[in-house]
Amino acid sequence: MRLFKITLVGDGGVGKTAMVTQAYFSDFIEGYDLTVEDNCRKQLVVSDEPCLLELLDTPSQEEYTALREQWHRDSDAFMIVYSISSRSSFNKVKKWNDEILKAREKHPQKEIKELSQAGFEIWKSPPRILVGNKADREEIERDVSTQEGETLARELGIKFVETSAKSNEQTMEPIQQLVRQTRKWTEEIGQADIEAKAEASEPVEPLKGSSHHKIALALFKNFLEKIKPSNLSSADDAKAKRRHPLN
């Protein structure tokens, strides 16, 4: 069963931890405190295919930048989370997106270095989704409109969804979308890598003086002898005599 590692990034207080606890325990736990690099695993079915899910809730403080770079390198997909009631968290979305992309460019995994350039170009831009959380505060505290979220997501070239971890509204939707995107993304990397390496490869010619070269040369000379005009006419005469033995 395939494991999908999804990392949540965003400012502190936007509800990343609450989204993780809803996904794992189907419950909103007020004041629940995840430790640094705290993660669990959960089995689920997405598009009729079972998978194993690992969610990583990352701290937003500056002192954890180096650790986040490591997590960005090792993850399959990302949720960039902001609160619809916090304009400042929305304004930081591009910063979080850039941090992910720079980490992928700077610190590729060991096996990723063996990819072709075409495969690497796809790998370094992983599946991401923009999540506007705390939609339960719609009526009293909304500070970022749905349209603004959609516009920013289009600008970044990623999907967008609004959720409420507190009321468990749409909390699994971004996860399911990322699993589907990651499956497709993985196939695209593999296909691009195969095609690039196939284009780069050239047919190997036998070395002159080698036994393979001598055999190939002998076969070619024998073929030339068989197609000489004299041989062709002789062969035609023989066929004619077999067809008309009395002539």
Automatic annotation (TrEMBL):
It comes from Dactylonectria macrodidyma. NCBIfam families: small_GTP (TIGR00231). It comes from the Eukaryota. Signal peptide: none annotated. The keyword Signal does not apply. SUPFAM superfamilies: P-loop containing nucleoside triphosphate hydrolases (SSF52540). The keyword GTP-binding applies. One of its GO terms (molecular function) is GTP binding. Keywords: GTP-binding, Nucleotide-binding. PANTHER family: RAS, DI-RAS, AND RHEB FAMILY MEMBERS OF SMALL GTPASE SUPERFAMILY. InterPro entries: P-loop_NTPase, Small_GTP-bd, Small_GTPase, Small_GTPase_Ras-type. One of its GO terms (biological process) is signal transduction. This is Ras family protein. GO terms for cellular component: membrane.
